[in-house]
Task: inverse folding
């Protein structure tokens, strides 16, 4: 199936903060993606690209956790700003692409998408492409870093400053999430994931069943009333091909597996919003990881390696 995205309006929203992370540097992610040609590559596929520049917010104070949360006030402010920016683009009929920044920002972007879905009567499906489940709480986190908590916060488990962004608690149901590529989960977090029945296609599943089968299941039952959000943490990828992240975990998807993942998402024609997070140029080699991320995002918007004639479209 070939999906024509020509004329579709997208908005790039830079959110340059590493306030939720364990390492400094993700704040430089938005510029690295721009340097890697994200806007130009999307325009080459016929998309109308509006670059909104970067949001501004509090500096990273680099302090220890307080009552299980590190930098809670700063994380909340950045997420409120991300929420409003993403929601405004959705309301205007544009597809928002949030350029992070660390993955705590998924709270703001996904709560905005959920709010938009409530306002328009649409269903929501979230694909969480990540090495980590990000389903920690203050009671089980080993670090207090909020980039390990966004899925839990979106599902209503966390401080009111974060769970209430978007006006409804919980912002989403665990049933709406499909996690792909997971291979690093804390012990308490694993129990919590099982208690709430998150659907997880971890690397063992992908090794045994293949990326194609994982994506077929993750994308099953989408229809014309479904808004598909992709939250792409660059540490989803194997660090051999994507070293530019703060929390590398060996054993991730290969280049071809990641391309197949993105192409199958594109084939649905349902992509409505996107996060690109945790790109850390301080850990990268000549912006190699940013270039790979841009290449994969291109595939989300229709670039395909398909040479044979499709039997599906």
Result:
């Amino acid at each position: 199936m070939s999906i024509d995205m020509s004329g579709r309006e997208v908005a790039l929203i830079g959110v340059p903060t590493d306030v939720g992370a364990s390492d400094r540097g993700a704040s430089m992610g938005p510029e690295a993606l721009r340097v890697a040609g994200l806007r130009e590559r999307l325009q080459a596929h016929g998309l109308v690209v509006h670059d909104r520049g970067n949001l501004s917010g509090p500096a990273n104070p680099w302090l220890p956790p307080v009552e299980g949360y590190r930098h809670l006030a700063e994380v909340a402010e950045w997420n409120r700003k991300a929420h409003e920016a993403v929601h405004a683009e959705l309301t205007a009929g544009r597809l928002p692409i949030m350029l992070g920044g660390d993955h705590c920002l998924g709270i703001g972007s996904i709560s905005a998408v959920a709010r938009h879905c409530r306002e328009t009567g649409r269903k929501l499906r979230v694909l969480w492409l990540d090495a980590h489940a990000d389903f920690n709480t203050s009671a089980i986190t080993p670090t207090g870093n909020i980039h390990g908590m966004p899925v839990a916060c979106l599902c209503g488990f966390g401080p009111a400053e974060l769970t209430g962004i978007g006006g409804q608690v919980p912002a989403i149901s665990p049933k709406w999430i499909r996690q792909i590529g997971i291979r690093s989960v804390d012990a308490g977090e694993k129990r919590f994931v099982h208690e709430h029945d998150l659907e997880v296609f971890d690397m063992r599943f992908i090794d045994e069943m293949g990326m194609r089968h994982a994506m077929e299941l993750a994308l099953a039952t989408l229809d014309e009333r479904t808004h598909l959000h992709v939250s792409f943490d660059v540490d989803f990828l194997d660090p051999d091909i994507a070293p530019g992240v703060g929390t590398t975990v060996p054993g991730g998807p290969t280049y071809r597996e990641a391309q197949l993942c993105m192409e199958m998402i594109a084939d649905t024609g349902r992509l409505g919003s996107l996060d690109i997070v945790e790109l850390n140029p301080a850990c990268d080699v000549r912006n190699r990881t940013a270039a790979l991320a841009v290449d994969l995002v291109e595939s989300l918007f229709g670039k395909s390696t398909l040479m044979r004639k499709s039997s599906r479209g």
Notes: Residues 9-300 form a domain with the Arginase; Chain A fold (CATH 3.40.800.10). The mean pLDDT is 95.
